[in-house]
Amino acid sequence: MHPDLVLTNARLLDPGSGAFLPHDTLVLRAGRIAGFEADAGAGAEVLDLGGAVVVPGLTDGHLHPVSGAERTAGVDLSRCTDLEGVRAVLAAAVRELPAGQWLRGWGLDPNVFGDRPVSADSVGPVLDGVPAAIDLFDAHSMLASRRALELAGIDGPRRFEQGSAEVVCDPAGRPTGLLLEDAACELVEAVAPRPDFEELCRATAEVLRRMAAAGLTGGHAMDANGESLAVYAALEERGQLPLRLRIAPWVQPGTSPADLAELVRRQGEGGRRWRIAGAKLFMDGTIDNGTAWLERPDCHGESTGAFWPDPAEYTRVIGELHRAGVPTATHAIGDAAVRHVLDAVEEAVAAHGKGAVRHRVEHIETVPDDTVARFAALGVAASMQPTHCTEYTRADHTDNWSRRLGEERANRAFRCRDLAAAGARVVLGSDWPIAPFEPLGVMAGARHRRPGRDLRQPPHLPGQALTPLQALAGYTLAPAWVAGEEDRAGRPAIGHRADLTVLGQDPLTVPDTELADVPVLLTVSDGEVTHRAV
User: Fold this and answer.
1) How confident is the model at residue 40 (pLDDT cuts 50, 70, 90)?
2) Alpha-carbon gap, residue 430 to 441, rounded angstroms
3) Residue 65, preceding peptide bond in cis (omega within 30° of 0)
4) Would you say 281 and 317 are in contact if contact means Cβ atoms under 8 Å apart?
5) What is the 3-state secondary structure (H, E, C) of 313-346?
6) Treating both helix axes as pointing N-terminal to C-terminal, what angle do 197-213 and 228-237 enclose, rounded to 10 degrees?
Protein backbone atom coordinates (compact mmCIF):
# COMPACT_ATOMS: atom_id res chain seq x y z
CA MET A 1 0.00 0.00 0.00
CA HIS A 2 1.07 3.58 -0.57
CA PRO A 3 1.93 5.98 2.28
CA ASP A 4 -0.78 8.30 3.52
CA LEU A 5 -1.66 11.13 1.17
CA VAL A 6 -2.97 14.35 2.70
CA LEU A 7 -4.69 16.92 0.52
CA THR A 8 -4.90 20.38 2.10
CA ASN A 9 -6.43 23.69 1.04
CA ALA A 10 -9.01 21.70 -0.91
CA ARG A 11 -12.67 22.30 -1.76
CA LEU A 12 -14.49 18.98 -1.39
CA LEU A 13 -17.55 18.79 -3.66
CA ASP A 14 -20.37 16.36 -2.92
CA PRO A 15 -22.08 15.26 -6.18
CA GLY A 16 -25.16 14.28 -4.21
CA SER A 17 -26.01 17.71 -2.84
CA GLY A 18 -23.88 19.88 -5.10
CA ALA A 19 -22.48 21.56 -1.98
CA PHE A 20 -18.95 21.79 -0.65
CA LEU A 21 -18.16 19.92 2.55
CA PRO A 22 -17.20 22.02 5.60
CA HIS A 23 -13.64 20.73 5.44
CA ASP A 24 -10.53 21.72 3.53
CA THR A 25 -8.39 18.65 4.28
CA LEU A 26 -8.65 15.05 3.14
CA VAL A 27 -6.57 12.16 4.49
CA LEU A 28 -6.18 9.07 2.30
CA ARG A 29 -4.92 5.88 3.93
CA ALA A 30 -4.81 2.26 2.78
CA GLY A 31 -6.84 3.05 -0.32
CA ARG A 32 -9.68 4.72 1.60
CA ILE A 33 -10.74 8.16 2.74
CA ALA A 34 -9.62 8.09 6.38
CA GLY A 35 -10.72 11.51 7.61
CA PHE A 36 -10.86 15.27 7.28
CA GLU A 37 -8.16 16.16 9.84
CA ALA A 38 -4.43 16.35 9.12
CA ASP A 39 -3.45 13.37 11.29
CA ALA A 40 -1.37 11.52 8.73
CA GLY A 41 1.14 8.86 9.62
CA ALA A 42 4.89 8.93 9.26
CA GLY A 43 6.11 9.34 5.70
CA ALA A 44 2.83 10.85 4.50
CA GLU A 45 2.87 13.07 1.45
CA VAL A 46 1.13 16.41 1.92
CA LEU A 47 -0.17 18.28 -1.12
CA ASP A 48 -1.45 21.84 -0.94
CA LEU A 49 -4.14 22.08 -3.62
CA GLY A 50 -4.40 25.86 -3.50
CA GLY A 51 -8.21 25.86 -3.38
CA ALA A 52 -8.71 23.34 -6.20
CA VAL A 53 -11.95 21.36 -6.33
CA VAL A 54 -11.92 17.68 -5.36
CA VAL A 55 -14.67 15.41 -6.70
CA PRO A 56 -15.07 11.64 -6.33
CA GLY A 57 -13.07 9.80 -8.96
CA LEU A 58 -14.71 10.10 -12.38
CA THR A 59 -15.82 6.75 -13.81
CA ASP A 60 -16.65 6.18 -17.47
CA GLY A 61 -19.78 4.03 -17.64
CA HIS A 62 -18.97 2.45 -21.01
CA LEU A 63 -15.59 2.02 -22.69
CA HIS A 64 -13.35 -0.54 -24.41
CA PRO A 65 -9.73 -0.01 -23.29
CA VAL A 66 -7.93 -2.98 -24.88
CA SER A 67 -9.92 -3.43 -28.08
CA GLY A 68 -9.94 0.35 -28.42
CA ALA A 69 -6.17 0.53 -28.07
CA GLU A 70 -5.90 -2.01 -30.89
CA ARG A 71 -8.48 -0.30 -33.13
CA THR A 72 -6.95 3.15 -32.80
CA ALA A 73 -3.50 1.99 -33.83
CA GLY A 74 -4.47 2.65 -37.46
CA VAL A 75 -5.15 5.79 -39.48
CA ASP A 76 -7.41 8.26 -37.68
CA LEU A 77 -10.28 9.29 -39.97
CA SER A 78 -12.46 10.75 -37.21
CA ARG A 79 -11.72 14.36 -38.21
CA CYS A 80 -12.60 13.88 -41.88
CA THR A 81 -15.83 15.63 -42.83
CA ASP A 82 -16.07 14.70 -46.51
CA LEU A 83 -14.90 12.05 -48.96
CA GLU A 84 -12.17 14.29 -50.33
CA GLY A 85 -10.64 14.47 -46.88
CA VAL A 86 -10.93 10.70 -46.39
CA ARG A 87 -9.22 10.02 -49.71
CA ALA A 88 -6.41 12.45 -48.91
CA VAL A 89 -5.69 10.88 -45.52
CA LEU A 90 -5.79 7.36 -46.95
CA ALA A 91 -3.58 8.31 -49.90
CA ALA A 92 -0.97 9.74 -47.53
CA ALA A 93 -1.08 6.55 -45.46
CA VAL A 94 -0.75 4.34 -48.54
CA ARG A 95 2.36 6.26 -49.63
CA GLU A 96 4.01 5.38 -46.32
CA LEU A 97 2.85 1.76 -46.35
CA PRO A 98 5.41 -0.96 -47.14
CA ALA A 99 4.42 -3.08 -50.12
CA GLY A 100 1.99 -5.85 -49.24
CA GLN A 101 1.25 -4.54 -45.75
CA TRP A 102 -2.27 -4.02 -44.43
CA LEU A 103 -3.73 -0.57 -43.92
CA ARG A 104 -5.92 -0.15 -40.85
CA GLY A 105 -8.16 2.84 -40.18
CA TRP A 106 -10.80 3.91 -37.70
CA GLY A 107 -13.35 6.60 -36.94
CA LEU A 108 -14.88 6.78 -40.44
CA ASP A 109 -18.15 8.76 -40.27
CA PRO A 110 -20.81 7.55 -42.75
CA ASN A 111 -21.94 11.16 -43.13
CA VAL A 112 -18.85 11.82 -45.29
CA PHE A 113 -20.41 9.70 -48.06
CA GLY A 114 -23.38 12.04 -48.44
CA ASP A 115 -25.78 10.48 -50.96
CA ARG A 116 -23.23 7.93 -52.16
CA PRO A 117 -23.28 4.37 -50.80
CA VAL A 118 -20.81 3.43 -48.08
CA SER A 119 -18.63 1.21 -50.25
CA ALA A 120 -15.06 0.62 -51.32
CA ASP A 121 -15.87 2.04 -54.75
CA SER A 122 -17.05 5.33 -53.21
CA VAL A 123 -13.66 5.83 -51.61
CA GLY A 124 -12.15 5.67 -55.09
CA PRO A 125 -9.01 4.03 -56.45
CA VAL A 126 -6.79 5.08 -53.55
CA LEU A 127 -7.03 1.57 -52.03
CA ASP A 128 -6.62 -0.39 -55.28
CA GLY A 129 -4.45 -3.42 -54.60
CA VAL A 130 -4.06 -2.51 -50.92
CA PRO A 131 -5.46 -4.83 -48.23
CA ALA A 132 -7.32 -2.34 -46.05
CA ALA A 133 -9.77 -2.69 -43.16
CA ILE A 134 -11.33 0.55 -41.96
CA ASP A 135 -13.64 0.66 -38.95
CA LEU A 136 -16.60 3.00 -39.20
CA PHE A 137 -17.00 5.22 -36.16
CA ASP A 138 -19.64 2.99 -34.55
CA ALA A 139 -17.29 -0.04 -34.39
CA HIS A 140 -20.24 -2.13 -35.61
CA SER A 141 -19.19 -1.97 -39.24
CA MET A 142 -16.11 -2.09 -41.42
CA LEU A 143 -15.18 -0.96 -44.90
CA ALA A 144 -12.89 -3.53 -46.52
CA SER A 145 -10.96 -2.93 -49.70
CA ARG A 146 -11.28 -5.27 -52.68
CA ARG A 147 -7.92 -6.83 -51.86
CA ALA A 148 -8.96 -7.42 -48.22
CA LEU A 149 -12.17 -9.11 -49.37
CA GLU A 150 -10.15 -11.33 -51.70
CA LEU A 151 -7.73 -12.37 -48.94
CA ALA A 152 -10.67 -13.14 -46.64
CA GLY A 153 -12.40 -15.23 -49.30
CA ILE A 154 -15.49 -13.01 -49.30
CA ASP A 155 -17.12 -13.21 -52.71
CA GLY A 156 -20.81 -13.04 -51.89
CA PRO A 157 -23.43 -12.93 -49.13
CA ARG A 158 -23.14 -15.05 -45.97
CA ARG A 159 -25.48 -16.23 -43.24
CA PHE A 160 -24.65 -15.52 -39.59
CA GLU A 161 -26.01 -16.39 -36.16
CA GLN A 162 -26.14 -12.68 -35.39
CA GLY A 163 -29.42 -11.56 -36.91
CA SER A 164 -28.22 -8.15 -38.14
CA ALA A 165 -24.79 -9.21 -39.42
CA GLU A 166 -24.35 -8.90 -43.18
CA VAL A 167 -21.87 -8.88 -46.01
CA VAL A 168 -23.45 -6.05 -48.00
CA CYS A 169 -23.66 -6.86 -51.70
CA ASP A 170 -24.76 -4.97 -54.80
CA PRO A 171 -27.75 -6.16 -56.88
CA ALA A 172 -25.44 -8.54 -58.74
CA GLY A 173 -24.39 -10.24 -55.49
CA ARG A 174 -20.92 -8.67 -55.50
CA PRO A 175 -19.65 -7.51 -52.06
CA THR A 176 -19.42 -3.73 -51.80
CA GLY A 177 -16.82 -3.81 -49.04
CA LEU A 178 -19.27 -2.82 -46.28
CA LEU A 179 -19.46 -5.42 -43.49
CA LEU A 180 -22.11 -5.06 -40.80
CA GLU A 181 -21.72 -6.27 -37.21
CA ASP A 182 -18.99 -8.35 -35.61
CA ALA A 183 -19.70 -11.69 -37.26
CA ALA A 184 -19.18 -10.19 -40.71
CA CYS A 185 -16.23 -8.02 -39.71
CA GLU A 186 -14.48 -11.01 -38.16
CA LEU A 187 -14.16 -12.58 -41.61
CA VAL A 188 -11.59 -9.91 -42.44
CA GLU A 189 -10.16 -9.67 -38.92
CA ALA A 190 -9.30 -13.39 -39.16
CA VAL A 191 -6.80 -12.76 -41.98
CA ALA A 192 -5.58 -9.28 -41.05
CA PRO A 193 -2.40 -8.98 -38.94
CA ARG A 194 -2.87 -8.37 -35.20
CA PRO A 195 -0.49 -6.88 -32.64
CA ASP A 196 1.38 -9.31 -30.45
CA PHE A 197 0.77 -9.40 -26.72
CA GLU A 198 3.52 -6.97 -25.76
CA GLU A 199 2.46 -4.48 -28.43
CA LEU A 200 -1.09 -4.68 -27.11
CA CYS A 201 0.09 -4.16 -23.54
CA ARG A 202 2.10 -1.10 -24.50
CA ALA A 203 -0.75 0.44 -26.48
CA THR A 204 -3.26 -0.21 -23.69
CA ALA A 205 -0.93 1.17 -21.01
CA GLU A 206 -0.56 4.39 -22.99
CA VAL A 207 -4.33 4.71 -23.45
CA LEU A 208 -4.94 4.15 -19.73
CA ARG A 209 -2.25 6.70 -18.85
CA ARG A 210 -4.02 9.30 -20.99
CA MET A 211 -7.36 8.39 -19.45
CA ALA A 212 -5.94 8.97 -15.97
CA ALA A 213 -4.53 12.31 -17.12
CA ALA A 214 -8.04 13.26 -18.26
CA GLY A 215 -9.35 12.62 -14.73
CA LEU A 216 -10.68 9.07 -15.00
CA THR A 217 -10.15 6.77 -12.03
CA GLY A 218 -12.38 3.98 -13.29
CA GLY A 219 -14.38 2.56 -16.15
CA HIS A 220 -16.95 -0.07 -16.98
CA ALA A 221 -15.26 -2.09 -19.73
CA MET A 222 -17.88 -3.59 -22.02
CA ASP A 223 -15.90 -6.52 -23.36
CA ALA A 224 -13.39 -9.16 -22.37
CA ASN A 225 -12.53 -10.13 -25.92
CA GLY A 226 -9.28 -11.60 -27.14
CA GLU A 227 -6.45 -11.14 -24.66
CA SER A 228 -8.08 -8.30 -22.70
CA LEU A 229 -8.08 -10.03 -19.32
CA ALA A 230 -4.46 -11.14 -19.69
CA VAL A 231 -3.52 -7.57 -20.62
CA TYR A 232 -5.17 -6.17 -17.50
CA ALA A 233 -3.43 -8.74 -15.32
CA ALA A 234 -0.04 -7.99 -16.88
CA LEU A 235 -0.46 -4.24 -16.58
CA GLU A 236 -1.47 -4.48 -12.94
CA GLU A 237 1.56 -6.65 -12.19
CA ARG A 238 3.75 -4.00 -13.85
CA GLY A 239 2.13 -1.12 -11.98
CA GLN A 240 0.59 0.23 -15.18
CA LEU A 241 -3.13 -0.06 -14.41
CA PRO A 242 -4.21 3.41 -13.19
CA LEU A 243 -7.96 2.81 -13.59
CA ARG A 244 -10.33 0.56 -11.66
CA LEU A 245 -12.07 -1.54 -14.32
CA ARG A 246 -15.33 -3.45 -14.05
CA ILE A 247 -15.47 -5.87 -16.98
CA ALA A 248 -18.56 -7.36 -18.63
CA PRO A 249 -17.79 -10.25 -21.05
CA TRP A 250 -20.05 -10.68 -24.07
CA VAL A 251 -22.91 -13.17 -24.32
CA GLN A 252 -23.76 -13.67 -27.98
CA PRO A 253 -26.52 -15.54 -29.82
CA GLY A 254 -25.62 -19.21 -29.87
CA THR A 255 -23.87 -19.14 -26.48
CA SER A 256 -24.01 -22.66 -25.07
CA PRO A 257 -25.35 -23.51 -21.60
CA ALA A 258 -21.82 -24.53 -20.61
CA ASP A 259 -20.39 -21.18 -21.71
CA LEU A 260 -23.11 -19.33 -19.81
CA ALA A 261 -22.40 -21.38 -16.68
CA GLU A 262 -18.69 -20.58 -17.03
CA LEU A 263 -19.45 -16.86 -17.23
CA VAL A 264 -21.50 -17.11 -14.04
CA ARG A 265 -18.69 -19.02 -12.33
CA ARG A 266 -16.08 -16.40 -13.25
CA GLN A 267 -17.93 -13.48 -11.73
CA GLY A 268 -15.63 -11.67 -9.30
CA GLU A 269 -12.40 -12.95 -10.82
CA GLY A 270 -9.67 -10.40 -11.30
CA GLY A 271 -7.07 -8.37 -9.49
CA ARG A 272 -6.98 -5.36 -7.21
CA ARG A 273 -8.12 -2.88 -9.86
CA TRP A 274 -9.92 -5.10 -12.37
CA ARG A 275 -12.57 -7.75 -12.06
CA ILE A 276 -15.22 -9.54 -14.05
CA ALA A 277 -18.61 -8.18 -13.03
CA GLY A 278 -21.66 -8.73 -15.19
CA ALA A 279 -22.35 -9.59 -18.80
CA LYS A 280 -22.69 -7.56 -22.00
CA LEU A 281 -25.34 -8.46 -24.59
CA PHE A 282 -26.63 -6.88 -27.79
CA MET A 283 -30.26 -6.47 -28.79
CA ASP A 284 -29.59 -4.60 -32.02
CA GLY A 285 -26.93 -2.84 -34.08
CA THR A 286 -26.87 0.83 -35.10
CA ILE A 287 -29.21 3.26 -36.79
CA ASP A 288 -26.50 4.59 -39.12
CA ASN A 289 -26.02 1.09 -40.58
CA GLY A 290 -29.67 0.12 -40.73
CA THR A 291 -29.05 -2.65 -38.16
CA ALA A 292 -30.93 -1.17 -35.21
CA TRP A 293 -34.25 -2.73 -34.19
CA LEU A 294 -37.06 -0.26 -34.69
CA GLU A 295 -40.78 -0.64 -34.19
CA ARG A 296 -41.21 0.79 -37.69
CA PRO A 297 -38.64 0.51 -40.49
CA ASP A 298 -36.30 3.42 -41.17
CA CYS A 299 -36.59 5.47 -44.36
CA HIS A 300 -34.67 2.78 -46.29
CA GLY A 301 -36.95 0.02 -45.07
CA GLU A 302 -34.16 -1.25 -42.78
CA SER A 303 -33.60 -1.67 -39.02
CA THR A 304 -36.45 -4.17 -38.71
CA GLY A 305 -34.79 -7.11 -36.94
CA ALA A 306 -33.16 -8.02 -33.66
CA PHE A 307 -29.51 -8.94 -33.14
CA TRP A 308 -30.73 -12.20 -31.57
CA PRO A 309 -32.57 -14.01 -34.41
CA ASP A 310 -34.88 -15.41 -31.74
CA PRO A 311 -35.55 -12.60 -29.23
CA ALA A 312 -37.20 -15.11 -26.92
CA GLU A 313 -33.81 -16.78 -26.49
CA TYR A 314 -32.37 -13.44 -25.32
CA THR A 315 -35.21 -13.20 -22.79
CA ARG A 316 -34.40 -16.69 -21.51
CA VAL A 317 -30.70 -15.82 -21.11
CA ILE A 318 -31.54 -12.63 -19.20
CA GLY A 319 -33.68 -14.74 -16.88
CA GLU A 320 -30.82 -17.20 -16.32
CA LEU A 321 -28.34 -14.44 -15.56
CA HIS A 322 -30.76 -12.60 -13.28
CA ARG A 323 -31.48 -15.79 -11.35
CA ALA A 324 -27.72 -16.29 -10.93
CA GLY A 325 -27.27 -12.74 -9.64
CA VAL A 326 -25.33 -11.53 -12.68
CA PRO A 327 -26.05 -7.91 -13.69
CA THR A 328 -26.44 -7.34 -17.41
CA ALA A 329 -25.70 -4.47 -19.76
CA THR A 330 -27.53 -4.67 -23.08
CA HIS A 331 -26.76 -2.61 -26.15
CA ALA A 332 -30.16 -1.40 -27.32
CA ILE A 333 -30.42 1.62 -29.59
CA GLY A 334 -33.79 1.38 -31.35
CA ASP A 335 -37.19 1.64 -29.69
CA ALA A 336 -38.10 -2.01 -30.30
CA ALA A 337 -34.77 -3.19 -28.89
CA VAL A 338 -35.07 -1.09 -25.73
CA ARG A 339 -38.64 -2.22 -25.19
CA HIS A 340 -37.66 -5.87 -25.51
CA VAL A 341 -34.83 -5.51 -22.99
CA LEU A 342 -37.17 -3.92 -20.46
CA ASP A 343 -39.75 -6.66 -21.11
CA ALA A 344 -37.07 -9.31 -20.52
CA VAL A 345 -35.97 -7.73 -17.22
CA GLU A 346 -39.57 -7.40 -16.10
CA GLU A 347 -40.16 -11.08 -16.86
CA ALA A 348 -36.98 -12.08 -15.01
CA VAL A 349 -37.98 -10.07 -11.94
CA ALA A 350 -41.47 -11.55 -11.97
CA ALA A 351 -40.04 -15.08 -12.14
CA HIS A 352 -37.14 -14.78 -9.71
CA GLY A 353 -37.70 -11.65 -7.61
CA LYS A 354 -35.90 -8.34 -7.90
CA GLY A 355 -33.01 -9.14 -5.57
CA ALA A 356 -29.87 -7.03 -5.64
CA VAL A 357 -29.20 -7.40 -9.37
CA ARG A 358 -28.96 -4.10 -11.22
CA HIS A 359 -29.44 -4.29 -14.96
CA ARG A 360 -28.76 -1.54 -17.47
CA VAL A 361 -29.47 -0.58 -21.06
CA GLU A 362 -26.71 0.91 -23.18
CA HIS A 363 -27.20 3.81 -25.63
CA ILE A 364 -31.04 4.25 -25.79
CA GLU A 365 -30.92 6.53 -28.80
CA THR A 366 -34.62 6.84 -29.64
CA VAL A 367 -37.54 5.75 -27.44
CA PRO A 368 -41.17 6.86 -26.90
CA ASP A 369 -42.58 8.24 -23.66
CA ASP A 370 -44.00 4.97 -22.33
CA THR A 371 -40.54 3.36 -22.55
CA VAL A 372 -38.90 6.26 -20.71
CA ALA A 373 -41.30 5.80 -17.80
CA ARG A 374 -40.43 2.11 -17.32
CA PHE A 375 -36.75 2.48 -16.39
CA ALA A 376 -37.25 3.78 -12.86
CA ALA A 377 -40.08 1.35 -12.09
CA LEU A 378 -37.90 -1.62 -13.06
CA GLY A 379 -34.73 -0.23 -11.45
CA VAL A 380 -32.91 -0.41 -14.79
CA ALA A 381 -30.12 2.12 -15.30
CA ALA A 382 -29.92 4.18 -18.48
CA SER A 383 -26.31 4.14 -19.68
CA MET A 384 -25.91 6.94 -22.22
CA GLN A 385 -23.21 8.58 -24.29
CA PRO A 386 -24.34 12.15 -25.04
CA THR A 387 -21.39 12.89 -27.31
CA HIS A 388 -22.70 10.30 -29.77
CA CYS A 389 -25.56 12.73 -30.29
CA THR A 390 -23.52 15.93 -30.27
CA GLU A 391 -20.68 14.69 -32.47
CA TYR A 392 -22.51 12.51 -35.02
CA THR A 393 -25.94 14.11 -35.46
CA ARG A 394 -27.00 17.65 -36.36
CA ALA A 395 -29.59 19.99 -34.97
CA ASP A 396 -31.15 20.45 -38.43
CA HIS A 397 -31.45 16.67 -38.89
CA THR A 398 -29.47 16.61 -42.14
CA ASP A 399 -27.18 13.86 -40.81
CA ASN A 400 -27.45 10.21 -41.79
CA TRP A 401 -28.79 9.11 -38.37
CA SER A 402 -31.63 11.62 -38.36
CA ARG A 403 -32.56 11.19 -42.01
CA ARG A 404 -32.86 7.45 -41.56
CA LEU A 405 -35.24 7.88 -38.63
CA GLY A 406 -37.38 10.77 -39.89
CA GLU A 407 -38.46 13.80 -37.87
CA GLU A 408 -40.70 12.08 -35.34
CA ARG A 409 -38.11 9.64 -34.03
CA ALA A 410 -35.15 11.99 -34.51
CA ASN A 411 -36.97 14.46 -32.26
CA ARG A 412 -36.88 12.01 -29.35
CA ALA A 413 -33.13 11.50 -29.53
CA PHE A 414 -30.82 10.70 -26.61
CA ARG A 415 -33.41 11.60 -23.98
CA CYS A 416 -31.00 12.10 -21.09
CA ARG A 417 -33.07 14.77 -19.32
CA ASP A 418 -36.38 12.93 -19.75
CA LEU A 419 -34.94 9.72 -18.33
CA ALA A 420 -33.44 11.56 -15.36
CA ALA A 421 -36.71 13.43 -14.76
CA ALA A 422 -38.58 10.12 -14.82
CA GLY A 423 -36.37 8.86 -11.98
CA ALA A 424 -33.96 6.66 -13.94
CA ARG A 425 -30.31 6.45 -12.95
CA VAL A 426 -28.47 8.00 -15.89
CA VAL A 427 -24.92 6.66 -16.19
CA LEU A 428 -22.67 8.65 -18.53
CA GLY A 429 -19.76 7.42 -20.61
CA SER A 430 -17.91 7.77 -23.87
CA ASP A 431 -18.02 4.30 -25.47
CA TRP A 432 -14.39 5.00 -26.41
CA PRO A 433 -13.07 4.51 -29.08
CA ILE A 434 -16.43 5.48 -30.61
CA ALA A 435 -16.09 8.97 -29.14
CA PRO A 436 -13.31 10.74 -27.18
CA PHE A 437 -12.91 9.50 -23.61
CA GLU A 438 -12.24 12.83 -21.85
CA PRO A 439 -14.92 12.89 -19.12
CA LEU A 440 -15.15 16.66 -18.90
CA GLY A 441 -15.86 16.75 -22.63
CA VAL A 442 -18.63 14.18 -22.28
CA MET A 443 -20.18 16.05 -19.35
CA ALA A 444 -19.93 19.28 -21.33
CA GLY A 445 -21.71 17.66 -24.29
CA ALA A 446 -24.45 16.44 -21.97
CA ARG A 447 -24.95 20.03 -20.85
CA HIS A 448 -24.66 22.09 -24.04
CA ARG A 449 -25.66 19.43 -26.67
CA ARG A 450 -23.30 20.95 -29.25
CA PRO A 451 -20.42 19.33 -31.18
CA GLY A 452 -17.24 19.85 -29.18
CA ARG A 453 -15.27 20.56 -32.35
CA ASP A 454 -17.49 23.56 -33.21
CA LEU A 455 -19.38 25.10 -30.30
CA ARG A 456 -20.85 27.73 -32.62
CA GLN A 457 -23.25 25.11 -33.96
CA PRO A 458 -26.81 25.09 -32.58
CA PRO A 459 -27.61 22.51 -29.89
CA HIS A 460 -29.35 19.27 -30.80
CA LEU A 461 -32.58 19.08 -28.79
CA PRO A 462 -31.43 21.39 -25.96
CA GLY A 463 -34.43 20.32 -23.88
CA GLN A 464 -32.59 17.03 -23.28
CA ALA A 465 -29.55 18.76 -21.74
CA LEU A 466 -28.56 17.66 -18.26
CA THR A 467 -27.93 20.11 -15.46
CA PRO A 468 -24.34 20.47 -14.22
CA LEU A 469 -25.17 18.42 -11.12
CA GLN A 470 -26.88 15.67 -13.15
CA ALA A 471 -23.87 15.46 -15.47
CA LEU A 472 -21.45 15.16 -12.53
CA ALA A 473 -23.67 12.51 -10.92
CA GLY A 474 -23.52 10.57 -14.20
CA TYR A 475 -19.77 10.10 -13.71
CA THR A 476 -19.78 9.56 -9.94
CA LEU A 477 -22.94 8.52 -8.12
CA ALA A 478 -24.62 6.68 -11.00
CA PRO A 479 -21.71 4.36 -11.93
CA ALA A 480 -21.26 3.54 -8.24
CA TRP A 481 -24.96 2.72 -7.88
CA VAL A 482 -25.24 0.53 -10.97
CA ALA A 483 -22.20 -1.42 -9.74
CA GLY A 484 -23.84 -1.89 -6.33
CA GLU A 485 -21.04 0.11 -4.72
CA GLU A 486 -22.84 3.23 -3.50
CA ASP A 487 -21.74 2.38 0.06
CA ARG A 488 -18.05 2.67 -0.86
CA ALA A 489 -17.72 4.87 -3.94
CA GLY A 490 -19.11 7.96 -5.63
CA ARG A 491 -19.02 10.41 -2.68
CA PRO A 492 -16.32 12.08 -0.57
CA ALA A 493 -17.15 10.15 2.60
CA ILE A 494 -15.05 8.49 5.28
CA GLY A 495 -14.50 4.83 4.44
CA HIS A 496 -15.12 5.36 0.74
CA ARG A 497 -12.46 4.54 -1.81
CA ALA A 498 -9.61 6.98 -2.20
CA ASP A 499 -10.47 7.53 -5.87
CA LEU A 500 -10.46 11.27 -6.54
CA THR A 501 -10.27 13.77 -9.37
CA VAL A 502 -8.94 17.27 -8.65
CA LEU A 503 -10.07 20.08 -10.96
CA GLY A 504 -8.85 23.62 -11.43
CA GLN A 505 -12.41 25.02 -11.38
CA ASP A 506 -15.80 24.15 -9.94
CA PRO A 507 -17.44 21.91 -12.58
CA LEU A 508 -20.89 23.01 -11.42
CA THR A 509 -20.40 26.72 -12.01
CA VAL A 510 -18.05 26.86 -15.01
CA PRO A 511 -19.96 27.71 -18.21
CA ASP A 512 -21.10 24.66 -20.18
CA THR A 513 -18.96 25.52 -23.20
CA GLU A 514 -15.83 25.94 -21.05
CA LEU A 515 -16.10 22.76 -18.96
CA ALA A 516 -14.07 20.60 -21.38
CA ASP A 517 -11.08 22.94 -20.92
CA VAL A 518 -11.01 22.87 -17.12
CA PRO A 519 -7.55 21.58 -16.09
CA VAL A 520 -7.26 18.22 -14.36
CA LEU A 521 -4.66 18.86 -11.66
CA LEU A 522 -4.53 15.49 -9.92
CA THR A 523 -5.98 12.01 -10.34
CA VAL A 524 -5.84 9.55 -7.45
CA SER A 525 -6.77 5.87 -7.55
CA ASP A 526 -6.62 3.71 -4.41
CA GLY A 527 -4.77 6.57 -2.74
CA GLU A 528 -2.07 6.46 -5.43
CA VAL A 529 -1.43 9.50 -7.59
CA THR A 530 -1.90 8.38 -11.18
CA HIS A 531 -1.67 11.85 -12.76
CA ARG A 532 -0.17 15.03 -11.37
CA ALA A 533 -0.16 18.55 -12.75
CA VAL A 534 0.04 20.38 -9.42
Assistant:
1) low
2) 9
3) no
4) yes
5) HHHHHHHHHHHCCCCEEEEECCHHHHHHHHHHHH
6) 70
Rounded Cα distance between 181 and 285, Å, is: 7
CA distance 532 to 380: 36
Residue 42 confidence (pLDDT) above 80: no
Q: Name the pLDDT band for 162 (thresholds 50, 70, 90).
A: confident
Each domain of the chain, given as residue ranges in start order, spans 60-66+197-525, 74-190
Please say whether the beta carbons of 58 and 216 come within 8 A: yes
Taking the C-alpha atoms of residue 23 and residue 508, their distance in angstroms, rounded to an integer, is 18
Does the domain spanning 74-190 belong to CATH 1.10.10.60?
Answer: no
**pLDDT reported for residue 1:** 60
Q: What is the pLDDT of residues 58-108, one digit of tens each?
A: 999 999 999 999 999 899 999 999 999 999 999 999 999 998 899 999 999
Q: Let me know how long the chain is.
A: 534
Alpha helices in 176-334 (DSSP H): 181-189, 197-213, 228-237, 257-265, 311-323
Q: Decide: helix, strand or coil at residue 167.
A: strand
Query: Under a CB-based contact definition with an 8 Å cutoff, are residues 389 and 460 in contact?
Result: yes
Question: What digits encode the pLDDT tens for the residues 481-498?
Answer: 999 999 999 999 999 999
CATH classification of 60-66+197-525 is 3.40.120.10, yes or no?
no
